[in-house]
Amino acid sequence: MTKRQPNIVFITTDQHRADCYSFARSDIQTPHIDSIAARGTRFDRCYCPSPICQPARASLLTGVLPHTHGVRDNGIDLPDDMIERGFAAQVRNQGYKTAMLGKAHFSTQHTFERTGRPECRYTMADYYDGWTGPYMGFDYLELFIDGPVKWPYWEPPQGLHFTRWLDHTGAGALAGKRYDSGKRPASEAQQVHTPDLPLNWHTSSWLGDRATDFISRQENDDPFLLWVSFPDPHHPFDPPSPWDRMYDPDDLDLPKHRDLDLGRRPWWHSASLTGTPQTNEEFREIRENLSRQKRLTDRQLRDITAAYFGMISLVDHNVGRILAALKASGLEDDTIVVVSADHGEFLGDHGLLFKGPMLYDSLIRVGLIAAGPGIAQNRQTNQVVSTLDLAPTFVDLAGGTPSNYHGQSLRPVLESGSGQSDMRNYAHIEWGLAASRCGIDLDLFTVVTQDYRATFENLSGTGEMYALRQDPYEMNNVFDDPAFAEARSHMDEIRRKRPDDAREQPLPAVGMC
User: Fold this and answer.
1) Rounded CA gap, 92 and 204, in Å?
2) What is the largest CA-CA distance in the chain?
3) With contact defined as beta carbons under 8 Å apart, do 373 and 1 qualify?
4) HEC secondary structure over 30-56
5) Average pLDDT value for the chain
6) In b/e form, how buried is each residue of 219-242, taking b as 16+ CB within 10 angstroms?
7) Given the DSSP bridges, would you call strands 40-47 and 365-371 parallel, antiparallel or unpaired?
8) Residue 357: is the preceding peptide bond cis (ω within 30°)?
9) 3-state secondary structure (DSSP) of residue 256
10) For residue 340, which of 96, 91, 68, 40 has the smallest C-alpha distance?
11) Do the Cβ atoms of 80 and 32 come closer than 8 Å?
12) Strands, DSSP E only, in 19-58?
């Protein structure tokens, strides 16, 4: 390690599968993230604590499972009593400057009414002029809520820093109009769109600009922790030109199993795709028309995959800019860079798209890569870990003593390059869905080990389990198979190791997402 504690640059993507890096498959290009893996340590069995945005991000920050921090689904704000528990506040207590750039999503955007949070559509205007924090333990923030590259343009003073920047450049409402006037593929693939926008008006480009500017302003005195949170490759799949043409759809590999095989799945798979969301008309329309997948042709899936890959490669390009800024500022040797994601994406697996309560590997497994001073180089491990482990890891690297976390510090693994026998070798994942999402109430709890993935639906007592070594594509549900009764009992035993600190009463939903 360096003489002082290292800087930490934490880079995340949104809805990014663990196998969508060029070290994992040959038909995608991520050279800059690959370079981090080559000079660092790569975890190939890292899982998210929830497969949906707000719960996963709240768990990234706090290091605890959703039923403990309270954000069991989108539409629930992370409560104030969890802020000081988050790694940003804990690292700040160790003398670090803390900053977040990009997508936060710790609070609900599409709310029923005013919440007072900067991410709320009704109160974001209160934070328009000159606000840069503090928020959720971060002293400095530059954020976007939606903007013309994700949702229809919101007139200033809404939208926070990205929209403010667009407005100040004179782009303003023109950006929204040009986004909407872009082209769609001939296949009419769901939520695929090439916006008619200059590259520098895209959120990934803006975020690369802001991250490199922040790094260039740092000096070799107090260490800093910077979270750079990219909103891509979350749908809509909308890479700007020329990234929309980077991949030929006909050259891409499609999933081996891409049929909507609901007949062999537990009841809630089908019910969640056909139920009527129990919410107001505005939110129900969004759930049914934007969040729910339609049946896919191979042509449409190829177009979706090409756009998804283009978004990832644009993010990777900006990761390269961040790495170059660290080197140019003389900070490369003093900075640990960590790359991960909040959750994955189905991308056609089992005939599915986006995300939902079918907790297949493509949705719950994410990339995790770290490099920097003291970290073992060019190492790869299959140890089962969780992004819950990142909060205590950051606190440990900053010189603090991690405590009160569900995760464990990965520092011993990072520094030795090998697995640690005293670390748990399983992951817990949970998601509490109200009928407002897909028409049914669900309480899902998943356990992943080296050998199995089991999901328990706690309200009905049903579940699914897959023997991963023999069945890596999760095709054969052995939950009720007598031949696997002992394995199921073992998975249930691991489920019961969940810390007994879940909130007694669920927090109320304040909106949709």
Assistant:
1) 27
2) 66
3) yes
4) CHHHHHHHHCEEEEEEEECCCCCHHHH
5) 92
6) eeeebbbbbbbbbbbbbbbbbbbe
7) antiparallel
8) no
9) coil
10) 40
11) no
12) 40-47
pTM: 0.96
Strand partners, 97: 224
CB atoms within 10 A of CB 65: 25
Burial of 274 (0-12, 13-18, 19+ CB in 10 A): exposed
Q: Which two tokens stand for residue 335?
A: 């900075």
- Helical (H) or strand (E) element with 208: helix 203-216
Q: Which amino acid is at 383?
A: Q
Residue 296's identity, in one-letter code, is L
Tokens of 82: 């969890």
Sign of CA dihedral 169, 173, 174, 179: positive
| Structure confidence by residue, pLDDT tens digits, 6-62 | 999 999 999 999 999 999 999 999 999 999 999 999 999 999 999 999 999 999 999
Helices then strands, counting H and E runs in the chain, come out as: 15, 13
Structure tokens at 150: 């994700």
- Tokens representing residue 96 in the block: 């670090």
Q: What is the DSSP letter of 5?
A: P
And the tokens for 162? 């990205």
